[in-house]
Amino acid sequence: MNPKVDFYFNTGNWQKELEHLRTIVLSCGLTEELKWGCPCYTYQKSNLVLIHVFKEYCALLFFKGALLKDPKGILIQQTENVQAARQIRFTNAQEIVKLKPAIKAFIYEAMEVEKAGLKVTLKKTTEFPMPVEFKKKLAKTPKLKAAFSALTPGRQRGYLLYFSAAKQSTTREARIEKSIPDILKGRGLND
User: In angstroms, what CA-CA distances link 176 with 50, 156, 164, 181?
Assistant: First the structure.
């Protein structure tokens, strides 16, 4: 147990559930660290699993969960845009106790995935939908097109997801207009 992480287990509504998860994960021989403000467990210095809480549930997040075998459908893809990570969600301690063998099996399988050096094949930025409004803006403004092309793939994806999330064309156009100065400066959506 890493004392830097202790605070996470001593606050909030999910203390009992978090203690169960912590005990299970540590029993598998992983190293406990604090990353992104959450308990993160590593194997051979690679992030394997994260414990995190939400208002309605607590969860174990497997960084390469998409590569794990899940015949019973326990692992959840948080949103359609999450490519690699998968969660197991819990709303009470009994669920954790019941799933303990499955949790440990997923952890050991994740360790094997890491040992084998397997990687999740991620979609290329060009495979993400580009809103028509943004395509038109890029076609009209070569400077904007060059600046967008110069962004890292992650920053490009961030903008494409942000623009595409708007249901109405006027909202997409407003988001694009608001983002143009940052794109021209080489900044990402949240930089």
Answer: 34, 12, 10, 10
